[in-house]
Amino acid sequence: MFKFDVIVTGAGHAGSEAAIAASRLGAKVMLATLNIENIALMPCNPAIGGPAKSNLVREIDALGGIMGRLSDDTYVQLKMLNSSKGPAVRALRAQSDKIYYKREMRKIVENEKNITLIQTQITDLIIENNVIKGVVDELGVIYYAPSVILTTGTSLKGRIFIGLQSFEAGRLAERAADGLSNALIKAGFPIKRLKTGTPARVDSRTIDYSKLQIQPPDTIDKWGCYNFFSFRKEKNIRKQVPCYLTRTTEITHKIIKDNLDKSPLYSGLIHGIGPRYCPSIEDKVVRFKDNPSHHIFIEPEGNDTYETYVQGFSTSLPIDVQFKMLRSLPGLENVSVIKPAYAVEYDSVPAVELNHSLMTKKVKGLFLAGQINGTSGYEEAAAQGLIAGINAVNYIQNKDMYEPERKSSYIGTLIDDLVTKDLSEPYRMLTSRSEYRLILRQDNADFRLMETGYSIGLIKEEDILRFRYKKELVEKEIQNLYDSKISACEENKEIMRNNGENFEIGQNAYQLLKRPNVDFFLLEKLGYKNSFITDDIYLKKEVLEQVEVLVKYDGYIQRQKDQVNLGDKLEKIKIPEGINYMEIKQISTETKELLNKIKPKTLGQALRIGGVKPADISVLMVLIESGKLREKIV
């Protein structure tokens, strides 16, 4: 008999994070995967981060997850996006070596003493009295565990489409998983079909790069540093390579329009809903018909391969059409295709079936994470996997569930959106999804979450000590700015004028730093001295950048904190469990149906449900405060 504490099915980005977290928290873990060669595979773009997604990666790192550190160890290009804009939207993006990335993740998994790695397909769930007991694989082998995490990606009844041809597969050259969908339906879960896709991979040796626009990586910044995801002390400086930019042409668009009848998306073969923010190239051409051209990025997939990713050129048109389309792009006139583009349709479970812990409402001990919950993206999957792994252990140890909040993290925003809003399309994290994005920046993820990661047991002693020292230095430096008077000598006035600022007598360094054109380098020219000395240039950079953001955006940050406090009032009003909303006469039928479906825990969560009106919340508040709502328990 095979017995474990936690069983994880699927070893993609969600499954890997879940298994490692559970293992490091002391659980005996079984990690089942269809193919052990594809642990943490990047089947689409080999890149980590970008707008909002970089916030997720740094939060994963601050909680003790793997993705940030592994990205730092395997990048081929680092680039800070939106660097000229405000700190709330700045985003680090790493182009990764996908072969190196999955190899290193497998190494981590195999070195975890509490993980048993098994290549098999899980086809059934053992459920007794709405409690998970274990799983069954395709050979009929039973594995028992009180906690199971499903991280099946696009494998659940996956079907690939290339033109009018289709076949069962979760990803190209990897079989689909069929049994679990039926097991979930049998357990009472609704299933919906979603769709995603990926571009062709081409041979870089057949590209004329002289016709492309180079997209260089970041060089060292003004501090003498590179930007990284992880907050750890060690930094891995690797050789970087450029990406390139080309554009679609009139010929490209004509080829697409002439062949739309061969697209499974437009011929009705695909029924699943695709991601709105990552459309196929044929969808772009149809939807934005007045746009004469679209950006296409040419991105390397690693240092030891000629395989190259054609970003922005996702399609499900036939292979012969794909060749014509690709060869209509400047620089790709003679390109050779290594792997064709394709669309994949797969089963998922509406995430409103989950609690904020990512445990299902119907079956205790059963957790879902990643694309099975209707999300897209490696970062969204890894974030969910980490939380599911933590809570799977909390569940078997009878501890309180860890449910990150919207006010403290993008991970909390992601999960709250998933379990609160009945989403019809694959969910992608965006900065606009957070109402608190100015205080949920990528640069302060450690301030928000690292103590939590340490209390959970995933942050090492050396990392928490470094963070606490950093926090101490930030506080000390802010006080030092207040205490430091800047001389009003003519030389200083001239320095300020040359930087577009006037000098006012009596100002301290704090007041000067609030100005748009003043930074620590200018303050040093004015005679300011930092409150600390360190040989760790990355620590110095992190401290002074943090201080600069806190000083310059002090008023805006305080305003957002006030907004958080206001929202907390509704979050603190709990809705009694077991309410039958259909019996409440004062709210509309539509609202009753939504509340019965989602079963929100607080009035704050109820207000975020699409279709629920503020007036309905007022009614519920009155009923709760008067005690009458308790009478509706069935």
Features:
634 residues; alpha+beta; 5-stranded parallel beta sheet; 21 helices; globular
N→C terminal distance: 41 Å
- Uncertain runs: none
The profile of the biggest β sheet is:
6 strands, antiparallel
Shape: globular
Report the structural category.
Answer: alpha+beta
Quaternary state of the chains: single chain
The helical percent reads 25-40%
Physical arrangement of strands within the biggest beta sheet: 16-17-18-19-15-20
Beta-strand segment tally: 22
**Strand content of the residues, in percent?**
15-25%
Global Rg: 26 Å
- Overall mean pLDDT: 94
User: What's the tally of helices?
Assistant: 21
Task: Please give a quick description of this structure.
This protein has 634 residues and is α+β, with helices and mostly antiparallel strands.
Account of the protein in words:
This protein has 634 residues and is an alpha+beta fold. It is 36% helix and 16% strand. The strands form five sheets. The chain has a six-stranded antiparallel beta sheet with strand order 16-17-18-19-15-20, with no helix packed on it. A five-stranded parallel beta sheet has the order 7-3-2-11-22, covered by helices on one side. The protein is globular. α3 (67-74) packs across α4 (98-111), α6 runs antiparallel to α9 (319-326) and α12 runs antiparallel to α13 (461-483).
